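Support request, please re-run this one:
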Amino acid sequence: MFRAILCLLCAINLYSQPLKWLDSGLKIVSSLELQNFKEGYGIAINEGLVLTAASLVYGETKIKDIMLYDSQPPTQAIYCLSHAEILALDTNLDLAILKPQKFTDIYCNILPESNLRSLNFKKKSFDIFNNVYLGSFYSQLEIEYFLEQEWSNFALKQSTLENLENFPQDKKQEMIGMPLFAKDGFIGILRDDGSILRQPEIVSFICKVSQTTSIFDSYLTLQKYCK
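Re-run finished. Output below.
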């Protein structure tokens, strides 16, 4: 009996520990013309870049602005973090790499160029090169992700791979750009068509851009990994 209680307490304590990838999650809102907008998700990755779906931040309708929103789980509300610009994208993969710029206060007012929020942002970065799920993919694999709770905070969600793939299309549309994890390892992101763009394809794109352009020249971690 004592052993069972001890195991239960250990499990509760483990589950209560904040997940690094959950702290790295972002809500992304793209402002379109005529006061329309798109909403989705992304994740802060190596060197403070942001990974999301291209369809969320680029399309036939001109994007006027891209806004990043942040949450510190499990108690703080979702609030403005910064504006962002597109550094690289591939519409065929439905993949975009963003760079935060013009950091704001929680009310979306732009801060001076040197500010504490921009300095702390890199601490949120999740290493998608090394913190990767390396196991097999099977129908009952437990997939973890996050969703907002009425703008109050980001909450951990779980689903089997089979159930995730069978979500209704409208639910998948609400999750565009969502980073997905298994056993705390990065799997990939959810695309506009509801499929998963997996980590090897994402890394391959980043390294191709790194090796053939100067876009990532100032990002030493990417340069080192992609050599």
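The chain has eight helices and eleven strands. The radius of gyration is 18 Å.
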